[in-house]
Amino acid sequence: MTLEPDVAAAVEELRRHDHISQSDAVNRLARLGLGRRNGQDSLPRPFEPVSVDLGLLIDVSDTASALEYLEGPAYG
Q: What is the pTM of this model?
């Protein structure tokens, strides 16, 4: 099998990074390509947090102060 230079570079980078054989690297990259061809997103997507306004009436940026306020001065 003859690999184009860009593919060979990707195989070598994956092989070195994951400490795997050349055959395993080629198979892993081929599976990624097959997944994309079939409409699957084989690569994990970045986490996107969901923000919701909870309508909090206290400042929760200082958790110790927030707990003392909610639990009373005996908390500390």
A: 0.47
DSSP 8-state symbol, 38: T
> Has residue 13 been placed in a domain?
yes
* Residue 48, domain member (yes or no): no
User: Is 9 within the bounds of a domain?
Assistant: yes
Which residue segment(s) compose the domain that 17 sits in? 5-37
Structure token pair of residue 17: 């990074």
Contacting residues for 35 by C-beta, under 8 A, at least 6 apart: 41, 42
Phi-psi region of 19 (alpha: psi -120 to 50; beta: other; left: phi over 0): left
Over the stretch 32-56, which tens digit does the pLDDT of each residue have?
Answer: 887 766 665 555 677 889 888 878 7
Q: How many domains does the chain have?
A: 1
The answer to whether 16 and 24 have CB atoms below 8 angstroms apart is no
